[in-house]
Specification:
Layout: H1 9-24, H2 31-38, H3 42-48, H4 52-71, H5 80-97, H6 99-105, H7 117-123, H8 125-139, H9 147-167, H10 169-174, H11 178-203
Helix pairs in contact: 1-2, 4-5, 4-6, 4-8, 5-6, 5-8, 5-9, 5-11, 8-9, 9-11
């Protein structure tokens, strides 16, 4: 088969697919309708992406990049509690801005399709960005705990909270607004991740 002559086409395909998934979730993506929306044949679409799952995997990697970009805006030289809170805020804001992409990012079934170590590393770059921030604080003597443990603890808390927040469960159960819920959670999150060193510092 002759190679299609439009090198920008794969990104156009992914841009359109991302819009569909962002609006209606991964179940809304249909290969035939996607090709029609872009104005190409199904044959051309399948030349670049051999399945719907292949496209969803690329969107998952895009979501990982978007989230890690938010994480990397946080300056590790900030006061530690401020930096940790900003990590939590960045994670939550990404999920609120891109709820369907967030759900796709957390979907593990696609991970078996990852072909390269580079892709696997890209998928986890946001987690590693959070860990890097704690490691930099630890190197400056501002974080007294093991950074890998702190990252894991924070990630578990964030994912659990965001899942409940997006589902609307907490608002129904607590009768608190979304902003009130985020404030309560972030106060707890900072204390949980920063731990006893933060309590000691506040008591000084």
């Amino acid at each position: 088969m002759t190679r299609p002559s439009n090198p920008q086409l794969p990104e156009r395909i992914l841009d359109q697919a991302e819009g569909i998934v962002a609006a209606g979730g991964s179940q809304a993506l249909n290969m035939r309708r996607l090709a029609e929306k872009i104005g190409i044949t199904s044959t051309t679409l399948y030349y670049y992406f051999d399945s719907k799952e292949h496209i969803l995997l690329q969107l998952k990697l895009r979501a990982a990049w978007k989230l890690s970009a938010k994480m990397r805006q946080i300056d590790a030289t900030w006061e530690p509690r401020r930096a940790i809170r900003a990590l939590g805020e960045a994670y939550i804001s990404f999920a609120e801005e891109h709820p369907h992409l967030y759900k796709l990012y957390m979907e593990t079934a696609l991970d078996t399709l990852l072909a390269s170590e580079e892709d696997r590393a890209a998928l986890h770059r946001s987690y590693l960005a959070a860990q890097s921030g704690l490691e930099k604080m630890a190197a400056r003597g501002l974080y007294k705990h093991e950074p890998r443990s702190g990252t894991m603890k924070g990630w578990i808390l964030l994912h659990g909270f965001v899942s409940l927040l997006l589902a609307g469960t907490l608002e129904r159960v607590t009768n608190l607004s979304r902003d009130e819920l985020k404030k309560v959670f972030l106060d707890y999150y900072v204390d949980a991740v920063y731990g006893e060193s933060g309590s000691a510092q506040r008591g000084m």
